[in-house]
Amino acid sequence: MRVNVEMIYHLDVETRILDERADPQGDLLLTNSQVAVEAVRGGGVFEPYQAEVARGYDSWLRAPDYAWLSFTAWPRSAMVNRQILPDPKTWPTRFEDFASPELRGKASTSTVNEETMVSQVSALRAVKGDEWTWRLIDRLLANGLRIYPSNKHTRDALIPEGNAVAMVNSSNFHVFLMEGNPVGEAWLDQERGGIGTNIEAHVVAVIKGAKHPQAARDFIDWLLSPDIQTLLARMFGETPVNAKAVHGMVKPLSDIRRTDVSLAKITALRDSTRAYLSTKGFAAPERD
Protein backbone atom coordinates (compact mmCIF):
# COMPACT_ATOMS: atom_id res chain seq x y z
CA MET A 1 0.00 0.00 0.00
CA ARG A 2 1.27 3.44 -0.89
CA VAL A 3 1.30 5.80 2.09
CA ASN A 4 1.05 9.57 1.83
CA VAL A 5 2.07 11.67 4.84
CA GLU A 6 1.03 15.30 5.19
CA MET A 7 2.46 17.49 7.93
CA ILE A 8 0.21 20.24 9.27
CA TYR A 9 0.81 22.88 11.92
CA HIS A 10 -0.01 21.44 15.32
CA LEU A 11 -2.39 24.24 16.28
CA ASP A 12 -4.40 23.60 13.10
CA VAL A 13 -5.15 19.96 13.92
CA GLU A 14 -8.57 20.49 15.48
CA THR A 15 -9.91 22.77 12.75
CA ARG A 16 -8.64 20.50 9.99
CA ILE A 17 -10.22 17.36 11.44
CA LEU A 18 -13.55 19.07 12.02
CA ASP A 19 -13.58 20.67 8.58
CA GLU A 20 -13.01 17.32 6.88
CA ARG A 21 -15.35 15.13 8.92
CA ALA A 22 -17.90 14.89 6.09
CA ASP A 23 -15.16 13.80 3.68
CA PRO A 24 -12.07 12.56 5.57
CA GLN A 25 -8.83 13.10 3.70
CA GLY A 26 -6.78 10.77 5.87
CA ASP A 27 -6.93 7.46 7.69
CA LEU A 28 -4.82 8.26 10.72
CA LEU A 29 -3.91 11.28 12.83
CA LEU A 30 -0.66 11.57 14.77
CA THR A 31 -0.16 14.73 16.80
CA ASN A 32 1.64 16.07 19.84
CA SER A 33 -1.12 16.81 22.34
CA GLN A 34 -3.78 14.89 24.21
CA VAL A 35 -5.69 18.11 24.84
CA ALA A 36 -5.96 18.95 21.14
CA VAL A 37 -7.68 15.68 20.27
CA GLU A 38 -9.73 15.52 23.46
CA ALA A 39 -11.14 18.95 22.60
CA VAL A 40 -12.75 17.58 19.40
CA ARG A 41 -13.44 13.99 20.46
CA GLY A 42 -17.07 14.82 21.22
CA GLY A 43 -17.58 15.70 17.57
CA GLY A 44 -17.39 12.04 16.64
CA VAL A 45 -14.41 12.52 14.33
CA PHE A 46 -12.46 9.46 15.52
CA GLU A 47 -13.09 5.73 15.28
CA PRO A 48 -12.31 4.14 18.68
CA TYR A 49 -9.73 1.36 18.69
CA GLN A 50 -8.92 -0.75 21.74
CA ALA A 51 -5.37 -1.73 20.82
CA GLU A 52 -4.07 -4.59 22.95
CA VAL A 53 -1.32 -2.51 24.53
CA ALA A 54 -3.74 0.34 25.26
CA ARG A 55 -6.05 -1.94 27.24
CA GLY A 56 -3.37 -1.96 29.92
CA TYR A 57 -2.96 1.83 30.01
CA ASP A 58 -3.64 4.01 32.99
CA SER A 59 -6.82 5.89 32.10
CA TRP A 60 -5.07 9.23 31.46
CA LEU A 61 -3.09 7.76 28.55
CA ARG A 62 -6.18 7.26 26.37
CA ALA A 63 -9.62 8.63 25.63
CA PRO A 64 -12.34 7.10 27.80
CA ASP A 65 -13.75 5.42 24.68
CA TYR A 66 -10.33 4.68 23.12
CA ALA A 67 -10.98 7.26 20.39
CA TRP A 68 -7.34 8.34 20.73
CA LEU A 69 -4.32 6.64 22.29
CA SER A 70 -1.02 8.00 23.55
CA PHE A 71 1.96 6.47 21.78
CA THR A 72 4.75 8.21 23.72
CA ALA A 73 4.51 10.30 26.89
CA TRP A 74 5.81 13.85 27.25
CA PRO A 75 6.66 14.58 30.88
CA ARG A 76 7.80 18.09 31.75
CA SER A 77 11.24 18.39 33.33
CA ALA A 78 13.95 20.97 33.88
CA MET A 79 16.98 20.83 31.60
CA VAL A 80 20.02 22.08 33.48
CA ASN A 81 23.09 23.79 32.03
CA ARG A 82 25.95 21.97 33.77
CA GLN A 83 28.38 24.73 32.83
CA ILE A 84 26.47 27.06 35.15
CA LEU A 85 25.13 24.55 37.69
CA PRO A 86 27.70 21.72 37.83
CA ASP A 87 26.58 20.49 41.27
CA PRO A 88 23.25 18.60 41.19
CA LYS A 89 22.67 19.70 44.78
CA THR A 90 22.04 23.22 43.44
CA TRP A 91 19.53 22.15 40.80
CA PRO A 92 15.86 23.15 41.20
CA THR A 93 13.57 20.61 42.82
CA ARG A 94 10.29 22.52 42.38
CA PHE A 95 8.87 24.61 39.58
CA GLU A 96 8.65 27.44 42.11
CA ASP A 97 12.46 27.41 42.30
CA PHE A 98 12.49 29.10 38.89
CA ALA A 99 11.48 32.21 40.84
CA SER A 100 14.40 31.96 43.30
CA PRO A 101 17.16 34.59 43.52
CA GLU A 102 19.71 31.98 42.42
CA LEU A 103 17.96 31.68 39.05
CA ARG A 104 17.25 35.37 38.48
CA GLY A 105 17.41 36.02 34.75
CA LYS A 106 18.66 32.47 34.13
CA ALA A 107 15.46 30.39 33.86
CA SER A 108 13.55 29.88 30.65
CA THR A 109 10.45 28.36 29.09
CA SER A 110 8.35 28.55 25.92
CA THR A 111 5.38 30.59 24.80
CA VAL A 112 1.83 29.23 24.58
CA ASN A 113 2.75 28.03 21.10
CA GLU A 114 3.53 24.80 22.96
CA GLU A 115 0.52 22.86 24.21
CA THR A 116 2.73 21.28 26.89
CA MET A 117 3.33 24.71 28.42
CA VAL A 118 -0.38 25.51 28.38
CA SER A 119 -1.28 22.11 29.85
CA GLN A 120 1.32 22.46 32.59
CA VAL A 121 -0.13 25.77 33.75
CA SER A 122 -3.70 24.49 33.38
CA ALA A 123 -2.81 21.54 35.61
CA LEU A 124 -1.41 23.91 38.23
CA ARG A 125 -4.62 25.93 38.12
CA ALA A 126 -6.65 22.77 38.65
CA VAL A 127 -4.53 21.60 41.59
CA LYS A 128 -3.51 24.86 43.31
CA GLY A 129 -6.14 27.33 42.12
CA ASP A 130 -5.94 30.49 40.02
CA GLU A 131 -4.70 32.80 42.76
CA TRP A 132 -1.68 30.62 43.55
CA THR A 133 -0.90 29.90 39.89
CA TRP A 134 -1.14 33.47 38.60
CA ARG A 135 0.91 34.71 41.54
CA LEU A 136 3.59 32.17 40.61
CA ILE A 137 3.56 33.40 37.00
CA ASP A 138 4.03 36.97 38.25
CA ARG A 139 6.93 35.86 40.47
CA LEU A 140 8.59 34.06 37.56
CA LEU A 141 8.30 37.11 35.34
CA ALA A 142 9.57 39.42 38.08
CA ASN A 143 12.56 37.11 38.41
CA GLY A 144 13.48 37.61 34.78
CA LEU A 145 12.04 34.45 33.25
CA ARG A 146 13.19 34.18 29.63
CA ILE A 147 10.46 33.20 27.16
CA TYR A 148 11.20 31.58 23.80
CA PRO A 149 8.91 30.82 20.83
CA SER A 150 8.98 27.03 21.25
CA ASN A 151 10.44 24.16 23.26
CA LYS A 152 13.11 23.78 20.58
CA HIS A 153 14.10 27.44 20.81
CA THR A 154 14.15 27.15 24.60
CA ARG A 155 16.38 24.09 24.39
CA ASP A 156 18.73 25.53 21.78
CA ALA A 157 19.21 28.79 23.72
CA LEU A 158 20.23 27.12 26.98
CA ILE A 159 23.99 26.93 26.38
CA PRO A 160 24.77 29.82 23.99
CA GLU A 161 22.66 32.36 25.90
CA GLY A 162 23.90 31.31 29.32
CA ASN A 163 20.61 30.15 30.79
CA ALA A 164 20.89 27.92 33.82
CA VAL A 165 17.64 25.95 33.49
CA ALA A 166 14.92 25.47 30.91
CA MET A 167 11.43 24.07 31.40
CA VAL A 168 11.07 21.56 28.58
CA ASN A 169 9.70 18.16 27.69
CA SER A 170 11.94 15.32 28.82
CA SER A 171 12.64 14.30 25.22
CA ASN A 172 14.07 17.79 24.56
CA PHE A 173 16.68 17.09 27.21
CA HIS A 174 17.57 13.68 25.82
CA VAL A 175 17.96 14.94 22.25
CA PHE A 176 20.17 17.81 23.45
CA LEU A 177 22.24 15.43 25.57
CA MET A 178 22.69 13.01 22.66
CA GLU A 179 24.00 15.92 20.59
CA GLY A 180 26.84 16.22 23.11
CA ASN A 181 25.68 19.20 25.15
CA PRO A 182 26.64 19.51 28.85
CA VAL A 183 23.15 19.19 30.31
CA GLY A 184 21.42 17.38 33.14
CA GLU A 185 17.78 16.68 33.93
CA ALA A 186 16.01 17.77 37.11
CA TRP A 187 12.63 16.32 38.01
CA LEU A 188 10.41 18.81 39.78
CA ASP A 189 7.87 18.53 42.61
CA GLN A 190 8.50 14.81 43.04
CA GLU A 191 8.52 14.74 46.84
CA ARG A 192 5.87 12.79 48.75
CA GLY A 193 2.69 14.82 48.53
CA GLY A 194 4.24 17.10 45.90
CA ILE A 195 2.42 18.62 42.96
CA GLY A 196 4.19 16.31 40.54
CA THR A 197 4.94 17.18 36.95
CA ASN A 198 2.42 17.41 34.14
CA ILE A 199 2.66 14.72 31.49
CA GLU A 200 1.29 15.30 28.01
CA ALA A 201 1.71 12.84 25.14
CA HIS A 202 1.99 12.20 21.45
CA VAL A 203 -1.28 10.64 20.34
CA VAL A 204 -2.66 8.60 17.48
CA ALA A 205 -6.25 8.17 16.33
CA VAL A 206 -8.10 6.44 13.52
CA ILE A 207 -10.19 8.99 11.64
CA LYS A 208 -13.88 8.12 11.40
CA GLY A 209 -14.75 7.32 7.80
CA ALA A 210 -11.17 6.36 6.98
CA LYS A 211 -10.80 4.58 3.66
CA HIS A 212 -8.24 2.13 5.08
CA PRO A 213 -9.27 1.58 8.73
CA GLN A 214 -7.60 -1.82 9.12
CA ALA A 215 -4.29 -0.51 7.84
CA ALA A 216 -4.61 2.37 10.32
CA ARG A 217 -5.21 -0.05 13.20
CA ASP A 218 -2.28 -2.21 12.09
CA PHE A 219 -0.05 0.86 12.12
CA ILE A 220 -1.12 1.66 15.68
CA ASP A 221 -0.28 -1.88 16.82
CA TRP A 222 3.15 -1.53 15.20
CA LEU A 223 3.70 1.89 16.79
CA LEU A 224 2.89 0.54 20.26
CA SER A 225 5.02 -2.59 19.89
CA PRO A 226 8.02 -3.02 22.25
CA ASP A 227 10.55 -2.73 19.42
CA ILE A 228 9.22 0.57 18.09
CA GLN A 229 8.73 1.97 21.58
CA THR A 230 12.35 1.04 22.34
CA LEU A 231 13.48 2.71 19.11
CA LEU A 232 11.65 5.94 19.95
CA ALA A 233 13.25 6.00 23.40
CA ARG A 234 16.77 5.33 22.14
CA MET A 235 16.74 7.66 19.14
CA PHE A 236 14.55 10.52 20.33
CA GLY A 237 14.38 10.26 24.12
CA GLU A 238 10.64 9.65 24.01
CA THR A 239 9.02 8.07 27.06
CA PRO A 240 7.51 4.67 26.20
CA VAL A 241 3.89 3.88 26.98
CA ASN A 242 4.59 0.15 26.56
CA ALA A 243 6.22 -1.09 29.76
CA LYS A 244 7.91 -3.91 27.81
CA ALA A 245 10.08 -1.42 25.92
CA VAL A 246 13.74 -0.96 26.81
CA HIS A 247 13.87 2.52 28.31
CA GLY A 248 17.62 3.02 28.49
CA MET A 249 18.31 6.47 29.98
CA VAL A 250 14.66 7.52 29.71
CA LYS A 251 12.82 7.61 33.02
CA PRO A 252 9.91 5.13 33.05
CA LEU A 253 6.42 6.52 33.58
CA SER A 254 6.08 4.34 36.68
CA ASP A 255 8.93 6.33 38.32
CA ILE A 256 7.41 9.77 37.68
CA ARG A 257 5.01 11.51 40.06
CA ARG A 258 2.39 12.95 37.71
CA THR A 259 0.26 15.97 38.54
CA ASP A 260 -3.00 14.32 39.56
CA VAL A 261 -5.63 16.12 37.53
CA SER A 262 -8.00 14.82 34.89
CA LEU A 263 -7.46 15.58 31.22
CA ALA A 264 -11.06 16.79 31.06
CA LYS A 265 -10.23 19.51 33.59
CA ILE A 266 -7.03 20.50 31.78
CA THR A 267 -8.92 20.67 28.49
CA ALA A 268 -11.64 22.84 30.04
CA LEU A 269 -9.01 25.31 31.30
CA ARG A 270 -6.93 25.33 28.13
CA ASP A 271 -8.37 28.35 26.31
CA SER A 272 -8.50 30.61 29.35
CA THR A 273 -4.95 29.60 30.33
CA ARG A 274 -3.66 30.44 26.86
CA ALA A 275 -5.53 33.75 26.81
CA TYR A 276 -4.26 34.86 30.23
CA LEU A 277 -0.65 33.85 29.57
CA SER A 278 -0.77 35.67 26.24
CA THR A 279 -1.41 38.92 28.12
CA LYS A 280 1.65 38.22 30.26
CA GLY A 281 4.25 37.95 27.52
CA PHE A 282 3.77 34.28 26.60
CA ALA A 283 1.87 34.96 23.34
CA ALA A 284 2.74 32.68 20.44
CA PRO A 285 4.87 34.25 17.69
CA GLU A 286 3.26 35.42 14.48
CA ARG A 287 3.09 32.72 11.84
CA ASP A 288 4.56 33.24 8.38
Explain this structure to me?
The model has no long low-confidence stretch (mean pLDDT 94). This protein has 288 residues and is an alpha+beta fold. Helix content is 35%, strand content 15%. The chain is globular, with a radius of gyration of 19 Å. Strands 1, 2, 3, 4, 5, 6, 7 and 8 form an 8-stranded mixed beta sheet that branches. Helix 3 (115-128) crosses helix 9 (263-282). It is built from 9 helices and 8 strands.
Keywords:
alpha+beta; 288 residues; globular; 35% helix; 9 helices; D-Maltodextrin-Binding Protein, domain 2; 2 domains; 8-stranded mixed beta sheet
In CATH, what is the homologous superfamily of the largest domain?
Answer: Periplasmic binding protein-like II
Helix share, percent: 25-40%
Q: How much β-strand is present in the residues? A: 15-25%
DSSP strand tally: 8
What's the mean pLDDT score?
Answer: 94
**Continuous helix count:** 9
Q: Can you give me a brief rundown of this structure?
A:
With 288 residues, this protein is an alpha+beta fold. It folds into two domains: 10-73 and 199-252, 3-Layer(aba) Sandwich (D-Maltodextrin-Binding Protein, domain 2); 76-197 and 263-282, 3-Layer(aba) Sandwich (D-Maltodextrin-Binding Protein, domain 2). Helices cover 35% and strands 15% of the residues.
